[in-house]
Automatic annotation (TrEMBL):
It comes from Pseudomonas kairouanensis. The lineage of its organism: Bacteria, Pseudomonadati, Pseudomonadota, Gammaproteobacteria, Pseudomonadales. This is Porin. The keyword Signal applies. Keywords: Signal, Transport. The keyword Transport applies. Transmembrane segments: none annotated.
């Protein structure tokens, strides 16, 4: 348990740092504007492949407890301000077995072979970044999370992904946000070391501009060494009709071309999605259409597990196979509209076709998701959250699966 002790000591330092300095120092913007959080996350994951003979492992189920400690400082005073962001993470196995590994919650020994290897009892990782601020521009260097349409780290399991490199955000012009980055390595969610990712180099540049109070445009581009170049464009329109009603349209498009050693294969495709939504009181109804055209499937993961901003990238499936067409129907309900704040519900159905995953076949796939969530609104347990995510996936070529995720989170802030 030495890893736990080292991690715990580092987290304790984060917790007591603002208290251990003198009053004069703690009154500075560096500490006064700082934020410290310890997020407690409990995660149960179950995936049943439904007697799928083509999958070596037919069942995955693990349960784990995670602690995610963050310290985000303010900036020192002056024309050029300096600060730091620190992140420490610890994951503890609560339940697993050799034949149920590979849920994405815990690292596994060996080559992740079910029935042979096993999940680690615990794991930890830590990283941090220095940051420099001039006017309304911030440059970070080090380990961090990133969320852009062409490079986005994920936080969908026990502990989040992080990436090493430079990331710049500039908001010098009103309603305009410019982002740029250079990244050299990534630590995946269920890994404590960097070799889990194939990333060796990536560059991104993009901007988002609010054209009118209701219309926002985005343009981004990226280059991932020996994999691909991506271009992204989007228009988002949101129009409140009155206090109870809102309509919105969201158009997104990618252009993807392989480059260098083409480690993901020869790629040259374009992806489009269009989503429309109507909200009335607590209910929101959405419809979406998504299409992939060209050579190869739309690709991600090397540039972050969340680097797919298309409408039909959902809990399990992505609906991004070569030439695939898919549509989505979705319904959301916020119970605050009927006097139960904090309680939410969502269900959606996505169906895809016009692709060939098996030789000479016109294949099809569909997924249905149901999600319930509740966040405690007041009292000692304020911000304690519970979330249930269930997915049913079926296809015409290699079997089906059912999936359940149960997630409990309790953030402590100071």
């Amino acid at each position: 348990m030495e890893r736990m002790s080292v991690w715990g000591s580092g987290l304790l330092m984060l917790a007591i740092t603002p208290l251990a300095v003198g009053d004069e120092v703690s009154d500075s913007a560096f500490f006064k504007d700082s934020k410290t959080q310890l997020l407690n996350r409990n995660f149960f994951f179950n995936r049943d492949f439904r007697d799928n003979a083509s999958t070596a492992q037919s069942y995955r189920q693990e349960w784990a407890q995670g602690l995610i400690g963050t310290f985000n400082s303010g900036f020192t005073e002056g024309t050029v301000g300096f600060g730091i962001d620190l992140l420490g993470m610890y994951g503890l196995k609560l339940d697993s077995s050799s034949d149920r590994i590979n849920s994405g919650l815990l690292p596994s020994s060996g080559n992740h072979i079910a029935g042979v290897d096993h999940a680690q009892n615990d794991y930890s990782k830590a990283t941090g970044a220095i940051k420099i601020k001039v006017s309304n521009t911030v440059l970070k260097y080090g380990g961090q999370s990133v969320a852009t349409p062409v490079f986005a780290t994920a936080d969908s399991r026990l502990l989040p992904e992080t990436v090493e490199g430079f990331f710049l955000t500039s908001k010098e012009v009103k309603d305009l946000t410019i982002e740029a980055g250079h990244f050299t390595s990534m630590t995946l969610q269920a890994y404590s070391t960097r070799p889990g990712s194939a990333l060796t180099g990536a560059d991104i540049l993009g901007a988002s501009y609010k054209l009118t109070p209701t219309l926002t445009a985005s343009l981004y581009g990226s280059s991932v060494k020996d994999y691909w170049k991506k271009r992204y464009a989007a228009l988002a329109w949101v129009k409140p009709l009155d206090d109870l009603q809102t309509v919105s349209l969201d158009l997104r498009a990618y252009d993807l071309k392989s480059q260098g050693e083409e480690k993901a294969g020869e790629l040259d495709n374009q992806s489009f999605s269009l989503k429309g939504a109507y909200r009335y009181a607590g209910s929101t109804f959405s419809l979406a259409n998504q299409q992939i055209h060209g050579r190869g499937a739309f690709q991600l993961y090397v540039d972050g597990t969340n680097t797919d901003y298309l409408s039909n990238y959902i809990q399990y499936a992505e609906f991004t196979r070569e030439n695939e067409r898919s549509w989505q129907a979705r319904y959301d309900f916020n119970f605050a509209s009927i006097g139960v704040p904090g309680l939410t519900f969502m269900t959606r159905y996505v169906r895809g076709d016009n692709f060939s995953a098996s030789a000479g076949q016109d294949d099809r796939e569909w997924e249905r998701d149901v999600e319930m969530g509740y966040v405690v609104q007041s009292g000692p347990a304020k911000n304690l959250s519970f979330r249930m995510r269930q997915a049913t996936y079926r296809n015409s070529f290699n079997g089906s699966l059912d999936e359940v995720r149960l997630i409990t989170e309790y953030p402590l802030n100071w």
